[in-house]
Write a structure and sequence with these properties.
This protein is an alpha/beta fold and about 375 residues long. About 25% of the residues lie in helices and about 20% in strands. It has 11 helices and 17 strands. The radius of gyration is 20 Å and the shape is globular. It comes from Thalassolituus maritimus.
Length: about 375
């Protein structure tokens, strides 16, 4: 079975985003022999580029499935154009405002009700809410992507989050009242650190020495990201959104239990290469342990970053950690990347040289 997986270039300046277009099946045959999937739509202005990409390179206006990983603007906003300008059959998106039962007890203010929390979530996540309404108005089938959900082809599967884990994250979403039990200090500090631009420091790396750590913490909304896997002819392709270590460990449990016999061929480096979303122990589970200098395995690791996202996106320490394990690392830097097998050629698209190992680099101290 052929496939082409396209990471579109998102972010002309320093703000990174995700927009991924996928086609699989008999790519030399008719549209009926193919499945088209979109994972995230980038910013608002990414939507038009994504629509044009599907029409031009996939030769269709019909999309079988659109998945929104989580309701951040760099993943969500472009999907409005996709829904309006393409014939979308199915839309997977979380609807946290419908998961409000029992939430009122999680907050300090005793006047809060489950109903008011649901209304507050719908207002805070107004863009996501409006996309659900738009899809329903167009008679698009809308489903919530929790672990175990598969598409009609059986190729696309959600590995995480589970319903229970997702609902445990909702009280920590932005814009909600103060919780009765405060979030961990690490999670609060993570948000602060990401918002503050720090001084740069020079780092000297040695092959095999990971400079990422197992205690990285990301936001609840990032951890709510849909973790999606495609399995084609014994090959696995893993898409992580902005998931953090906690969420990805749960997905790794599913992989260990049910998918270990299928070979990983592609992994999306989570959250644009942030150092808080991946750790060495988790990477060992997903990719395997360190290889010898210059050795590679048959896995491509792709990270979506803005044209001028460095040094924050991507972190060179994260790229090195994937390279330590033999993955061939590719970075969009505002340009498109195509991973392909048994598909028609494209004019203007040529093979890329993987990211070199970074023995010296600068990074923000925070």
């Amino acid at each position: 079975m052929g496939y082409e997986i396209d990471f579109l270039g998102v972010g002309e300046e320093s703000k990174s985003g995700d927009a991924i277009a996928i086609r699989f099946g008999n790519l030399h045959g008719s549209r009926e022999e193919q499945t088209v999937v979109i994972i995230d739509g980038g910013f608002s202005d990414t939507g038009s580029a994504l629509v044009e990409h599907v029409k031009t390179h996939f030769g269709t206006e019909q999309v079988d499935l659109v998945i929104n990983t989580h309701p951040d603007q760099d993943h969500l906003n472009g999907l409005e154009t996709v829904l309006n300008e393409l014939d979308v059959q199915e839309f997977w998106i979380h609807q946290p405002w419908n998961h409000n039962e029992g939430l009122a007890a999680k907050f300090k203010d005793g006047r809060i009700t489950d109903s008011s929390i649901g209304e507050r979530l719908a207002k805070t996540l107004e863009r996501a809410c409006s996309l659900v309404a738009l899809a329903e108005a167009k008679d698009v089938l809308v489903r919530e992507p929790f672990a175990g959900l598969t598409d009609s082809s059986g190729v696309v599967e959600v590995l995480g989050p589970t319903v229970d884990y997702y609902e445990s994250l909702i009280p920590d979403f932005d814009g909600l009242p103060e919780k009765a039990a405060l979030s961990t200090a690490m999670e609060s500090l993570s948000t602060v650190f990401d918002a503050v631009k720090s001084k740069l420091r020079k780092v000297f790396a040695t092959w095999g020495e990971d400079k990422i750590y197992d205690d990285g913490v990301t936001s609840a909304k990032n951890n709510s990201s849909v973790i999606t896997q495609l399995t084609l002819d014994g090959r696995r392709f893993l898409f992580t959104g902005d998931s953090g270590i906690e969420a990805l460990e749960q997905a790794a449990d599913v992989i260990d239990a049910y998918h270990a016999h299928n070979e990983l061929r592609l992994i999306q480096i989570p959250h644009h290469g942030s150092r808080r979303n991946i750790g060495p122990t988790l990477l060992d589970r997903l990719l395997g342990t360190h290889v010898s200098t210059g050795e590679t395995i048959d896995v491509v690791a792709i990270v979506s970053t803005a044209k001028n996202g460095e040094p924050k996106h991507p972190r060179k320490a994260v790229l090195n950690a994937f390279t330590h394990r033999g993955a061939k690392v590719l970075v969009t830097k505002g340009n498109g990347i195509r991973h392909v097998k048994d598909a028609p050629g494209r004019i203007g698209w040529s093979p890329l040289t993987p990211e070199p190992y970074h023995y010296e680099y600068e990074e923000e101290e925070a």
